[in-house]
Queue: 2 jobs
Job 1
Amino acid sequence: MTGEGIDYAHPDFRNADGSTRILQLWDQSIPGNPPANYNIGTVFTSEDINRALEADSVPRRLEIVPEVDLSGHGTHVAGIAAGNGRGSGGQYIGVAPEADLLVVKLAPGSARSFPRTSELMQGIDWVMRYGLEKQRPLAINLSFGNNYGDHEGNSLLERYMDDIANLGRTVIVVGSGNEGNTGRHTGGLLETGSRQSMPREIEFLVAPYEAGMNLQIWKSYGDQFDIGLRTPSGIMVGPISELQVKQTVTAGITSISVLYGEPTPYSISQEIYIALIPVRQYIEEGIWTLFIYPKVIRTGSYQLWLPVAGATNAGTEFLQPRVLTTLTIPSAAQRAITVGAYDSRTDSYAAFSGRGGEIGVQKPDITAPGVAITSSAPGGGYSTRSGTSMAAPFVTGGAALLMEWGILQGNDPFLYGEKVKAYLRRGARPLPGFMEYPNPQIGYGALCVADSIP
């Protein structure tokens, strides 16, 4: 899976005879011919793609298979995991260059919508069904992340991933995100006991020209507190007490909506969701202050997240951020292999790489090269990018090689799932400056597939 599509005509995804290495491509954004059991998008088979590749012009090719990777993200990720280097004369070769490919391009989401959880779940379900039907091992790459969840592995998407990981012979690999140094997370501890007189104040900066954003507070459902907000121009809103309905207040040029959530069948935590919506074009810029008014506090821990950096403008951040527990959703899924990033040129940790730490399961599991990685780009060329989106496919390709050695070559028919994770953890090599393993930054160390083979 790539999430953002793929340039299927790129030489790196074609065989020596020019035919495609892509078994099927599901573009959820193109209506017309969805796969069985689904209601969005169009599936293109290898036969469809080969007909398109044989077309005498690019416009004709796109008439047959109108798949375009506008961002280049999906093509780049796929090239790292499985590009064969034909477009570069063998210079830029992916980790598993002979692997067959299943590609999912997610349907686009709007700027104010919740993350594309249902589309991603359908994509995972589709490739899992394919693997089960064809009796083939799968290494699924998710270079995708957001901040919407409790970061303890309890989101609906992460619970689903943990469940479906038990089916077939599968490995699910997720990047830990690029929020390690963006200032989008903070948290704290309230004094336990009954009502307290002084509210807790948390400041965050809203950059100019924000067309809307949200703030999430996650806490124990057993704790009870009210919240308030002060706008940069000094308008006070609240205290807003817990009700079972959305509460909306207009403060100057910004509309503030607050919704107190409930625990779910898969989580004991409570979310307080705050949406800042422009009355006209943009929300008020400057320093906002969130107030927490404690009522009954039993555990006291609270965690806050702003949207990921890519969803808001540069400069929007907490004024006293925390660098731990900055991995993105769904990388907190327990059965996923969560991948952080390091700079392979200097053997140093990449500061942007999302970290585990304060809460939830031990993550990341491992780290891989994620700084200045050159890989396939739309149009047949190559580009250089950085991020855990680039680190994850190194591990996905490595997992595919391990499963090929174990399952396809008959050395270990049970080499999939948590067993692959265990082998990769043991085979990981240390990086300079880290004395304890696992740790919240690089997990068990840097990827080394050779040392991971038992």
Note: The first strand starts at residue 22 and ends at 27.
Job 2
Amino acid sequence: MQSEQDILELIEEDIWMMEVLKAAHSLGLPDWWVCAGFVRSKIWDTLHGFKERTSLADIDVIYFDPENLTGKEEEHLEKKLGHLVPDLPWSVKNQARMHVVNGLPPYTSSADAISKFPETATALGVKLDEQGGLVLISPCGIEDVLNMEIHPTPHFLGEVRLLSIYRERLEKKNWTAKWGKVKQGNSFLT
């Protein structure tokens, strides 16, 4: 696996992932993406030669709607997705309000929010366009996820408080225990 096209083909060939994307697409949300571990885990599972999918703590569906900033709407959307594809850990978040939760200046779009995820290897999203074609977004590039390296995004690298959150996430997530070939950027841990 070497390119964005390789990633797109990998996801297109996964019936379950496409079912998840079709369910999210059916909501008609503005500037929506299924992101983070949904994409990263598929890539790392494949690069490790795993036959079974690594379980996901959640399936992150994000969107950007500055007109409706209530958490209740997100709960409603999670329930809708739960009816479409039951028994999945759906997590729906409007990125137009997540800056408040994260103590950051307002995001301008879902792409802006993804660029400010903690790790470059997780700053990925996929969606179906209006014609049903698969689209990948990777504001920090795909090199780290393909090289199985964990590094903070430029945003998290730029502030001590955020770098501390990044370090705590690395410890909590312990990705190297699941994916033995993954390497952490140790220079950021000291």
Note: The two ends are 32 Å apart (CA to CA).
